[in-house]
Design a protein that fits this description.
The complex is a heterodimer of chains A (about 525) and B (about 325).
Chain A lengths: L3 H22 L11 E6 L19 H5 L4 E3 L5 E3 L2 E6 L5 E6 L12 H13 L11 E8 L2 E6 L6 H6 L9 H4 L19 E7 L3 E6 L12 E6 L3 H10 L4 E5 L1 H7 L5 E16 L9 H8 L4 H7 L5 E3 L7 H4 L16 H11 L20 E5 L5 H14 L5 E5 L5 H4 L5 E7 L29 H11 L4 H18 L2 E14 L3 E2 L13 H4 L3 E2 L1
Parallel strand pairs in A: 1-10, 14-15
Antiparallel strand pairs in A: 2-3, 4-5, 5-7, 6-7, 8-9, 9-10, 11-17, 12-16, 12-17, 13-17, 18-19
Helix pairs in contact in A: 8-11, 14-15
Chain B lengths: L2 H28 L4 H5 L1 H6 L1 H10 L6 H13 L13 H36 L4 H15 L2 H15 L13 H4 L3 H35 L2 H8 L4 H13 L1 H15 L3 H6 L5 H11 L2 H29 L7
Helix pairs in contact in B: 1-16, 6-7, 6-10, 6-13, 7-10, 8-10, 10-12, 10-13, 11-12, 13-16, 15-16
Classes of the chains: A alpha+beta (about 525), B mainly alpha (about 325).
């Protein structure tokens, strides 16, 4: 007879022992969150490649609280000064002059124009990839301690964009960096900047504590300390928010946002139209190389349905050619595209029929005028991204029009290459790519550096205007050129804008307030937003 | 054990490592995409000069053969390069993350071996009984549920609702003031350890159960019974010991596999181990770091296999190695 009782007893002992060990550790888990500390959830590295010269981390913001650009883009279509208080350029935009603020580095050393000059020269001498942003700068001159002048190799009216974002140039202290010979392999542990918050301490991969910079040259922070907490998983970030161990979570999905509505002490707010989505056509591949076909398909995009289904209402349909009206303002030509891109499936059907794209074999899908099946593709990466979900909706929607599209799964890093082998593609870009007339050069052939644009679009008039735009500094003149470019786009239809999607934030209203008053320029809590937050 | 066999085994391991280095290099360089296109796709797309400068900065503009020669030489000299994303030496980065993975992996492995073998052997010993059937179904359920589900379940129930454990991370926020507290780290490690244990138990259970079922039909078990030994004695001293032999190789592989961490569990618990590091490195196409991670994995697999080979005689004196 098996001595089962004895074995069972042993197993039970082991289980009890395990439970006991676990229970022993199960002390009260609630964290003692410092009352005056604002805790921001972030999803990844704080700083890329070890130091600020390689840009801020995937979290998108930590470095910006500590370091500053000369200026930064704002949502009103202009720029806010950070280390520069005034700026101006000569008539042909070959010389940009920046009057600098009276500021101090976090270690108490004074900030001066030499730091600006040093930042440019250091990046360039060390051949860091960031220097590509400044490739049109010839040299930087210090007129005096408070004036730095950038001399350009050729007219650069869009130079402020280069300096201010995506990724922009953060100014570094000369006295600290001049002795560091190999920035590529240098891990900065001091983070000396000029920003409103100073680096205090960190627990690797877990927390960074920043404290208010009492000597900040601009608007003083209203919170004493900010703790950045790394939580890679969005669901875990939301649980932390609900449990009170973080104060704000950004870039939430619409479904999560809806689920948080009505929760005690939690509030949701949005930064409207922060990502712009568009349907692109490739003009080299049949049948999207046919202008009339593209015009027909421009009426087949149900923007409202996409906003409702994919973004659960957290998006606004876009009715322009490329620029987004709520961020590009009067750069948007109000007379185009008119009703050219209006959703009208019946019109699409009529136009396709008249072009000879009809269903001859009765299989439910249209064939081309030559009688051959239309083999059209649209690349997607994964299934969960907004782009992929929009593509799914278009595919399903277009079935009723007799249009068959195959969604082709590709690696995200290869998606942009795949645009050239496809007919359609859906792409989402930050609103900063849709907010300035200069962004229209996106459709220029071979753009600045000899590379084909995504659409393989090549219109000689458009290219001439793009070149003209690059060499025009006068604002009104640039606007006129932009209007003409938008007219050409509306006529040639290389892409159809879909919508501007909101970025959703959730925060604990019992701890801090002031979040909604300033809209961020990206999808995280940025410095301008943070400076407005105060204890509840 | 012959010295000759040991030498042959070492030479074979070094050869396997060299081959693996080459395969790793080739595969990673065949992989589409690069770091800059992942991190700043619009800059890289709009300004190809950024890509050229980036390639020059990290030596990626050199001919592939030259890169390969440099890579082989550097690795063999102990220089595994610098991570592009973290800016740190690959070896120190991996060592640091390996520490955190081991912190949850060692107790999880020990617990899962202990529980898996205990339950598996008893289930096999009582094969066909109601208890065996119930346990078997329970293990199918445990194994079928994905690891991220267990992780979320534990966080939600034990962390969020019952507030018994932290929701994630490896230390509490007070560490910024007080410094690291080992008990705090252990407290944070409990849930990821339990999650890892739960997902590892079924594999060990199946193997042990099958091994035990094969063993109980052996003649020496019958002989032991005829001698009048108690069932517990036979199970412990005859059946269990023999049934454990095939477990060794599998356990060695399981250990090597677990050392690489679990992406899901580490992500959900914000545990900064090898799984999260590997995921991050893949996501941003950090080639030097990926090379280092795969080489470390290869090294560990080679070492645990050799260790498993040499430990057979300890479990079964009849086995002679070499």
């Amino acid at each position: 007879m098996i001595n089962g009782l004895s074995i069972k007893a042993g197993m039970l002992k082991a289980l009890f022992l395990t439970f006991f060990v676990l229970a022993a550790f199960a002390m009260a888990a609630g964290e003692d969150v410092p009352e005056d500390a604002l805790i921001i959830a972030t999803d990844g590295s704080f700083i890329m490649q070890g130091n600020m010269l390689f840009g801020i981390g995937s979290s998108g913001s930590t470095g910006t609280y500590v370091y500053e650009h000369l200026l930064t883009k704002n949502r009103e279509g202009g720029y806010d000064g950070e280390l520069a208080e005034h700026w101006d350029c000569n008539d042909d935009a070959t010389q940009w002059t920046f009057n600098l603020v009276d500021a101090k580095w976090h270690d108490g050393q004074p900030f001066s124009s030499e730091d600006v000059q040093f930042t440019y020269e250091y990046i360039k001498e060390n051949k860091l990839w960031l220097s590509s942003v400044l490739s049109n700068v010839d040299y930087v001159e210090c007129h005096d301690e408070r004036t730095a002048v950038f001399h350009m190799k050729s007219p650069s009216p869009a130079f402020l964009d280069d300096l201010s974002h995506c990724p922009g140039i953060y100014i570094i202290p000369k006295h600290f960096w001049k002795d560091i010979g190999d920035p590529t392999h240098y891990v900065d542990e001091e983070w000396i900047g000029t920003g409103p918050f100073k680096f205090d301490s960190m627990i690797p991969d877990q927390y960074v504590r920043l404290v208010a910079n009492e000597n900040y040259h601009g608007k003083k922070p209203l919170v004493n300390q900010v703790i950045i907490k790394v939580i890679p998983n969005k669901d875990s970030q939301v649980l932390s928010l609900k449990s009170g161990s973080v104060d704000v979570v950004s870039d939430l999905g619409p479904a999560i946002a809806r689920s948080l509505q009505g929760e005690d002490d939690l509030k949701i707010f949005t930064a409207p139209a922060t990502r712009g989505y568009e349907l692109g056509f490739n003009l080299n591949n049949s049948p999207t190389d046919n202008l009339d076909f593209r015009k027909a398909m421009a009426h087949a995009v149900n923007r409202q349905q996409i906003c409702d289904i994919v973004f659960d209402g957290y998006a606004t349909p876009t009715d322009t050619t490329f620029l987004m009206p709520n961020v590009a303002y009067d750069f948007v030509n109000p007379s185009v595209p008119g009703s050219d891109y209006e959703y009208d499936p019946e019109r699409t059907k009529e136009m396709l029929n008249s072009l000879g794209y009809t269903d001859r074999d009765g299989d439910g899908y249209r064939e081309g005028p030559d009688g051959e099946d239309l083999a059209m593709t649209m690349p997607i990466s994964g299934t969960g991204s907004y782009e992929s979900r929009i593509a799914e909706i278009l595919k399903e929607d277009w079935k009723s029009l007799g249009i068959k599209v195959v969604l082709k799964q590709v690696d995200s890093s290869q998606k942009q290459n795949e645009y050239h082998n496809s007919n359609f593609f859906v792409v989402g870009m930050p609103y900063l790519m849709h907010d300035d007339v200069d962004d229209l050069t996106h459709f220029e052939v071979d753009s600045h550096f000899g590379k084909a644009n995504w659409y393989d679009y090549n219109d000689s008039d458009y290219n001439t205007l793009a070149e003209e735009l690059r060499n025009t500094a006068d604002g009104d003149e640039r606007k006129k050129i932009g209007y003409r470019m938008q007219e050409i786009l509306a006529e040639d239809v290389p892409s159809v804008p879909i919508c501007g999607a909101d970025v959703i934030f959730a925060y604990r209203s019992d701890r801090f307030t002031g979040w909604e008053d300033v809209e961020p320029i990206m999808w995280g809590v940025d410095t301008k937003m943070l400076l407005n937050v105060k204890e509840a | 054990m012959r010295i000759g066999y040991l030498g042959w085994r070492m030479a074979y391991s070094i050869f396997a490592f060299l081959i693996s280095m080459t395969i790793t290099f080739v595969l990673l360089h065949l992989m589409p995409g690069d770091y800059l296109h992942t991190i700043l796709p619009y800059l890289a797309e709009k300004n190809p000069q950024a890509t050229l400068l980036f390639q020059e900065q990290f030596g990626l503009n050199k001919p592939l053969m030259e890169q390969y020669t440099l890579y082989m030489r550097n690795v063999l000299q102990g220089n595994w390069g610098y991570s592009i994303h973290y800016g740190l030496p690959v070896v120190s980065l991996i060592s640091e993350k390996l520490f955190w993975t081991m912190l949850i992996f060692i107790p999880a492995t020990l617990l899962s071996i202990l529980l898996g073998m205990a339950i598996g052997s008893y289930s096999g010993w009582t094969c066909g009984s109601n208890l065996d059937s119930t346990t078997f179904k329970l293990m199918i359920f445990l194994g079928a549920v994905p690891s991220y589900w267990w992780a979320l379940f534990l966080v939600l129930v034990l962390g969020y609702y019952l507030n018994l454990f932290p929701l994630g991370g490896y230390v509490g926020i007070e560490t910024l003031d007080t410094g690291m507290n080992p008990l705090d780290i252990v407290h944070h490690a409990v849930l990821p350890t339990v999650a890892l244990t739960i997902v590892s138990i079924p594999g060990i259970y199946y193997l042990m159960r099958n091994s035990m079922i094969s063993t109980i039909g052996e003649d020496y078990i019958l002989s032991a019974r005829s001698k009048g030994f108690s069932e517990t004695y036979i199970l412990r001293h005859h059946a269990l010991r023999n049934a454990m032999l095939p477990m060794l190789t599998v356990l060695a592989m399981e250990m090597a596999h677990m050392i690489m961490g679990s992406v899901f569990i580490e992500t959900i618990f914000s545990w900064p181990g090898m799984g999260l590091l590997t995921y991050d490195a893949l996501r941003v196409r950090d080639i030097p770091l990926l090379q280092g991670i795969f080489l470390m994995d290869t090294l560990i697999i080679i070492i645990v296999n050799v260790a498993a080979d040499f430990s057979y005689p300890l479990v079964d004196p009849r086995v002679k190695v070499g």
